[in-house]
Amino acid sequence: MNDFTTGKRTTAKIGNQTQRLVVWLVTLCSLLFLPVSCSNDQTDEAAQFFLRGNVQLQKREYREAIRYYTEALDKKPDFADAYNNRGLAKFRNDDREGALADYTRAIETDADFGAAYLNRAEVLLETGDAAGSLADLQRIEKAYRDSTGYQTRLGDTYVRLNDPARAQAAYDRAVQLDPDNVEGLTNRAALYYTQRAYQQAEADTRKALALNPKQDAALNNQSLLLARVGQYTEALSYVERALRVQPTQPYYLNNKAYLLLRLNRPAEALPLVEQSLRLDSKNAWAHRTLGLYYLDQEQPTNALTEFRQAETLDASVDELYYYIGTAESAAGNVAGACDTWRRGASAGDERAKEAYRKGCGN
């Protein structure tokens, strides 16, 4: 299919019948400081603004929370807890840069502020700085090593750093510390999927859904697991449930489009994959899905454009070389098709290998 997902929405890749594995960047790891740890020189006004900000943050009124924390910081510029909590409010209001700046200010104000390091690690990971995220996590390892949320975040970071052995160890520890850690189970399932350990991936995904039937990343991933074995109708029901939770999640939109193509419903698939690409134009899996649409519509030139774009973005997309070769063949370029299938076979694409054997005389 298309995109396999993990709990919060970082992304670890996954195979074709599911494309991308979405990793949950666990919200339980974003630490909100509720107590006011005020020293004698902090004014009562700063403390009151801080507490009002906490109330608004818990009510998910993020702009109001930011306003109150800013008032607290105007009264007391070295208020580390206010920087941390304002960072969390900005993060939840989709202001990654603002959150990163506030977490950094919290750390500059209090170099031992463990929760701020943990929160900053999340933002760094989401903004593509996995090495920076790991550095922050290692800084607080002694204090947080027995936290299931910390271990989940560590696993997410190692996934991004392409270190599956350490990621596995961290996820295992997270689930050992809390067998009901939905994010840890979801993200470990994604890792299992990329390693083709499908039974383990399904076990973790099913447990995550038993604990939280509305966990959208796990719903999406279950859809992908079903699609992998050709159960497209049942798979569609799961990704539609994921979309009811996150209606504009680009990976889920793309996965639904892929399933609709497999169910011979191309007119419904096209607007979904186009919407997915408007939301995330760099998703190789979505370009592959659009290429499949054009291939089904007997438009091999358009299909090749999309498949080539997918190759540029991520050449490891499942069966990509098989489909590029198929489009080349449909366009009348038999030599190009054979060359593409041969390269795919060398890269382990079994369908490309079979197409080369059947179509190229070797």
From TrEMBL:
<dbReference type="InterPro" id="IPR011990">
    <property type="entry name" value="TPR-like_helical_dom_sf"/>
</dbReference>
<dbReference type="InterPro" id="IPR050498">
    <property type="entry name" value="Ycf3"/>
</dbReference>
<dbReference type="Pfam" id="PF13432">
    <property type="entry name" value="TPR_16"/>
</dbReference>
<dbReference type="InterPro" id="IPR019734">
    <property type="entry name" value="TPR_rpt"/>
</dbReference>
<feature type="repeat" description="TPR">
    <location>
        <begin position="46"/>
        <end position="79"/>
    </location>
</feature>
<feature type="repeat" description="TPR">
    <location>
        <begin position="182"/>
        <end position="215"/>
    </location>
</feature>
<feature type="repeat" description="TPR">
    <location>
        <begin position="216"/>
        <end position="249"/>
    </location>
</feature>
<protein>
    <submittedName>
        <fullName>Tetratricopeptide (TPR) repeat protein</fullName>
    </submittedName>
</protein>
<dbReference type="Pfam" id="PF13424">
    <property type="entry name" value="TPR_12"/>
</dbReference>
<feature type="repeat" description="TPR">
    <location>
        <begin position="148"/>
        <end position="181"/>
    </location>
</feature>
<keyword id="KW-0677">Repeat</keyword>
<keyword id="KW-0802">TPR repeat</keyword>
<dbReference type="Pfam" id="PF13414">
    <property type="entry name" value="TPR_11"/>
</dbReference>
<feature type="repeat" description="TPR">
    <location>
        <begin position="80"/>
        <end position="113"/>
    </location>
</feature>
